[in-house]
Design brief:
With 166 residues, the protein is an alpha+beta fold. The protein contains 5 helices and 7 strands, in the order H-H-H-E-E-H-H-E-E-E-E-E. The chain has a single domain, classed as Roll (Nuclear Transport Factor 2, Chain: A), CATH 3.10.450. Helix 2 runs antiparallel to helix 3. It is globular.
Length: 166
């Protein structure tokens, strides 16, 4: 991994696109441990800012993507599809759907994932009441955090969407 001089100015990171940032995040594990944490945090913050800018452009969805077995009752929006493709996090959609037995007929749930130092923390809540909490011992999720909503749809299933798509 090519490293810039440490002059306290990380503007070079902001000039990279999502693909470049994702590639560098994958290489950060090659760095000495003392440098790894800071480099990952800087790259992850830049990736999160850029991804949030892209995701804010999704304000509705004309197309829905059905999930595979055993989660056929779930669909997700174009914005969530963009997130899953770019961030390589289809596993997050599976994780959200896997907690379906805890939904108990709720109409709107909030799924949050935070990632710091390669450790993830997932929560699923309704009106600030936590339905599920899970620690993920290792994740390469490129964002520092993401919030997705899970809404009951007219087909009797659930739609995973970005807050901006509601």
């Amino acid at each position: 991994m090519a490293r810039p001089r440490n002059n306290g100015n990380a503007k070079w990171v902001n000039a990279l696109n999502l693909s470049e940032l994702h590639r560098l995040l994958g290489q950060v594990y090659q760095l000495p441990e003392a440098e790894r944490k800071e480099a990952r945090a800087r790259l992850q913050a830049a990736y999160t800012r850029q991804m949030q800018t892209h995701l804010a452009q999704f304000t509705g969805s004309a197309r829905f993507f059905r999930m595979g077995a055993p989660f056929q009752q779930f669909v997700h929006t174009e914005g969530v599809q963009f997130l899953a493709q770019q961030a390589g996090c289809y596993w997050l959609l599976d994780l959200i759907a896997s907690y379906r037995p805890r939904y108990r007929g709720e109409t709107l749930l909030v799924a949050r994932l935070t990632a710091q130092d390669s450790v993830g923390r997932f929560t699923l809540s309704v009106d600030e009441r936590i339905l599920a909490r899970q620690k993920i011992a290792f994740t390469d999720f490129p964002m520092s955090e993401i919030e997705l909503w899970v809404a009951r749809n007219e087909e009797g299933g659930y739609t995973i969407l970005l807050p901006s798509e509601h």
